[in-house]
Amino acid sequence: MTNLHLVAVESAADRARFVELPYRLYAYDPHFVPPLRSEMRALIDGIKGNPWFGHAEAKFWLAVDGDQVVGRISAQVDQLVLDHIGAGTGHWGMLECVDDQRVADLLLDTAESWLRGRGMVRAQGPFSLSIWDEPGLLVSGFDRPPTVMMGHHLPWYQRLIEAHGYAGIKDMHAWELPIDRPFPELVQRIVAASQRNPRLKTRQVNKARFAEEAALILDILNDAWSTNWGFVPLTPAEIAHVGKKLKPIVFEDLILIAEYDGEPVGFMIALPDINELTRDLGGSLFPLGWAKLLWRLRTPRVNRIRVPLMGIRKSLQGHRIASLMAFQMIETIRANAVANYGAVRGEIGWILDDNGPMRSIADAIESKVTRTYRVYERPL
After folding, report:
1. Does one domain contain both 215 and 315?
2. Which one of 170, 204, 222 terminates a domain?
3. How many domains in the chain?
4. How many Cβ atoms are within 10 Å of 23's Cβ, its own excluded?
5. 243: helix, coil or strand?
6. What is the DSSP string of 17-58?
7. More confident residue, 210 or 327
8. Which pLDDT score, from 0 to 100, does residue 244 have?
9. Residues 43-86: pLDDT tens digits?
10. Do 77 and 222 lie in a common domain?
């Protein structure tokens, strides 16, 4: 590389080049699922497309060699991270680049310099852009495509990041299991006990009131996850945005709310693996992608179902009732996924490496870790 330089992303043309880079870098990766360009543009396009910018700021750069883009990165400072994680914690993310240490160093140095200029004393990443988007770098599990809303990366990124001086601070795992057969007998006994408990009831969400249901679920989530590593609460604007974004891929029989003595205290969300339905669209909904996707979403048939989120209010965590709720919801969704969507595999994740209760549930239903994502940190 004879003319390697940085370009700050300022114009619409620069944003287009930023969004477009992965489609070229992953062109020969058989497991790459092209994300929808419209979603990628909205993610980085400021508060008009992403309410995360209501409490955070970000900067984006391209690494260019001659006239060819060879890398990209973001750096971001989130006030909610500073409030809930710790003062001086800055993030970077959206890293994509060719296999060249000079390119990775230029990108990471630039992101770190920007963070340092805003008073940050440590850099963590990748977060693209937040813990609620695609956190962590894929470090194992390159042999399969990602499920819906999960990241996928090129295998050399780990080497480039660690050579720059970063050390892993947290691993997040995706667990997978066959779901076209009953759970082990112990789990079945727990489910039966939960069904006999008159104080416990699970119900499906009502899609006709989905904004209200989404707000309820995310209120439980903010409480249930409040002590988890990396947690920052979702704001009301983000809750509304998430509800609107998820509504087209929400199916009532795959999202459950658990009630205890009539009070909503838990939830579980499962999604058909929409990646299976969008993979052949090449990241574009035009000119015919919209029609194809809408048709496929009418009665989706997929191989995998993913559980991205579940939670039970802190007041019940550690109690026997929490286990009863969890296994009742898991079994109900397992049965619905097989009967109504043709799914044969389920994915739970991600799960933090030190989340003992969730790892115990994953073990009990005989699931195995299939992918690991790692968050890195370096002092500034």
Report:
1. yes
2. 170
3. 2
4. 16
5. helix
6. HHHHHHHHHTTT-TT--PPPHHHHHHHHS-TTT-GGGGSEEE
7. 327
8. 81
9. 999 998 899 999 999 999 999 999 899 999 999 999 999 999 99
10. no
* Beta carbons within 8 Å of 173's beta carbon, 6+ residues apart: 349, 350, 351, 353, 369, 371, 372, 373
**319 and 341, same structural domain?**
yes
User: What was the pLDDT predicted at 349?
Assistant: 87
Q: What pLDDT was estimated at residue 290? A: 62
Cβ-based neighbours of 99, under 8 Å, separated by 6 or more: 154, 156, 160
Written as six digits, the tokens of 136 are 């962590």
C-alpha triplet 247, 252, 255: angle, nearest 5°: 90
* Cα pseudo-dihedral 273, 276, 282, 288, rounded to 10: -100
- The strand pairing partners of 306, in sequence order, are 271, 347
- Do 71 and 194 belong together in one domain? no
Structure tokens at 74: 């973001």
Which residues are CB-neighbours of 211 under 8 A, at least 6 positions away?
240, 243, 244
> What would the pLDDT profile of 298-333 be if each residue is shown by its tens digit?
788 999 999 999 999 999 988 888 889 999 999 999
Residue scoring higher pLDDT (125 or 215): 125
Are the C-beta atoms of 187 and 326 separated by less than 8 Å?
no
Whether 159 and 237 map to the same domain: the answer is no
Task: Domain of residue 122: give its range.
Answer: 4-170
19, 93, 137, 173 from 141: Cα distances, Å:
24, 20, 11, 10
